[in-house]
Amino acid sequence: MIDKNKELVSDAGSAGKVFSLWKVLLPVAIGLAAVAWMFWRDAKSQNIGAELSQIDFSPYVICCIALAWLFMIGRDFGLCWRFRVLTDGDLSWKQAMRVTCLCEFTSAVTPTAVGGSSLGMLFLNRENIELGRATTLMLATLFLDELFFVVACPIIVLFTPLRELFATGGGFGAGLEVTFWLIYSGIFLWTLFLFLGIIVWPGGIRRLLVRLFSISWLRRWQPRVVAMGANMQATSTSLRSKSFKFWIQVFCGTSLSWISRFLVVNALFLAFVPSADACQWLIFARQTAVWVVLMVSPTPGGAGLSEWLFSEFYDTLIPTAALSLVMAISWRIVSYYIYLLIGAVLVPKWLRDSFGGRKKSKL
Questions:
Q1: Contact present, 143 and 52 (Cβ < 8 Å)
Q2: Prediction pTM value
Q3: Which of 50, 162, 315, 343 would bridge with 169, disulfide CB 3.0–4.6 Å?
Q4: Could you read off the pLDDT of 203-218 as tens digits, one per residue?
């Protein structure tokens, strides 16, 4: 009983640190600062006020913005579907949606490289999924997300000339291309490591990690690495017996989620830049590249960097700087800030229900 209480207090403390008020406000402040800087930068050379006044929110534009929201719903549906399949239906749709929203909120208030999986096992555990199994499931979602990019990026590059994919108005195209390939290489190696550790050779990878991190200058990280090796082996035991249909379903759910996320920008272009109808594939391809670069963002939820990347990647396709700012803000509201709002509503109740009032939310 004492151990259980200690675990409860520890979990509450971890959640409380991630969900503290300043961590919610920080990405908002960074994002607004980035938008303000871009506004100031462009205002020096262009009449931003006049350009903004020319934007017409016609019924067609409003319908296209609604389509962007519909794509975000499709994204969440894909994640919920994946959780349902991974748990063999043990999570209801309502529970899967709650876990999805909490994971997205965690992603929004932590650096992109950390992601929503940092507390995902805790969210699943509070939905009556045993903690060891929850850890296994979150490791599986991590593998599936990385696998999607490993598969999708070569397809994007195959059908999109590189000179068009990285053609930016700010002259950063060459640098972004190098960054893209460096990050993709890292994603590929990490996915290969997860594949070997989860599917092909879990015991061998675990022993290799233990031996490698026995080196004196790496020993400080040995406990965490050993735990990761154990989790990979447990994940392997759980997943290697799954049917081909299972893998098709979870990868389809993953693909639906990411593709729907990318299509949000396509819908915004339909709304604000009708002349871009002929380059919808290029818009989608550049969104894939944006998210690859955001994989290593040091800011919470990619705040600041996301707005700048949007402005750089789509500058050649958007006629005015003012319109670029409006679209960047609209993109972030639909795909990012909404999860901060949802989290602000869900988290206090979740903490209260999960920890019985032992840890009050700081929101």
A1: no
A2: 0.85
A3: 315
A4: 888 888 778 888 877 7
